[in-house]
Design goal:
about 200 residues, mainly alpha, 6 helices
Length: about 200
């Protein structure tokens, strides 16, 4: 009797195994179809997906886009932006400075409003010129490096920062040029890391 029950249990387990294997095989085939290499790649065209179709651009629009993406336009835009930002920064720092308008020959004399405004304007113009030059140099070199490398990544800003800082610092000597290169490159890398 014991032999007959053991034969029945092995026969029952043999009967279950083929069903489990075929279910496992079917499951793995479905998984392979859904996840594996057999899954077709879908075209993500907005017109097919029900989105709004993109309008065709006219020749004038293409010309404007090419102009706005050119290195010249980017350099001029950075120059103007740097001029405005530098002027505002210069006027602000002159407003904080307590020595604006003070005559070094007679420091006890109170400066007139005209003298204070003249000094504020001179400082604002000086800062504006410096910021404009730095902005134009950085933007132009970054655009040229990006065009040459064919990539748009953080390295372009670091290389451009090094070139700009080196060119500005080189006027004071080789050591200042190397320090300017390293300082501007590190600052550019920090800004790119923060922004991206």
């Amino acid at each position: 009797m014991a032999a007959s029950t053991s034969d029945a249990s092995t026969a029952g387990s043999d009967a279950v195994k083929p069903g489990m294997d075929s279910a496992g095989l079917q499951y793995s085939m479905i998984l392979e179809h859904l996840i594996g290499d057999k899954k077709p790649i879908k075209d993500l065209n907005p017109a097919i997906m029900g989105g709004l179709p993109a309008a065709h651009k006219s020749d004038e629009q293409k010309m404007i886009e090419r102009g706005m993406e050119s290195c010249t336009f980017k350099a001029v835009l950075a120059c103007v932006g740097g001029f405005v930002l530098g002027g505002a920064f210069g006027v602000f720092t002159a407003g904080i400075d307590t020595n604006v308008g003070v005559d070094p020959k007679d420091p006890l004399r109170t400066p007139t409003a005209r003298e204070v405004l003249r000094d504020m304007g001179q400082r604002g113009m000086s800062y504006a010129k410096n910021f404009a030059i730095v902005g134009a140099m950085f933007s132009c070199t970054e655009c040229i490096i990006e065009s040459h490398r064919g990539k748009s990544d953080w390295k372009n800003a670091v290389y451009s920062g090094c070139v700009t800082g080196g060119a500005i610092g080189f006027r004071a000597g080789l050591k200042a040029g190397v320090l300017g290169c390293g300082g501007f490159a590190a600052f550019s890398a920090a800004i790119e890391y923060y922004l991206r």
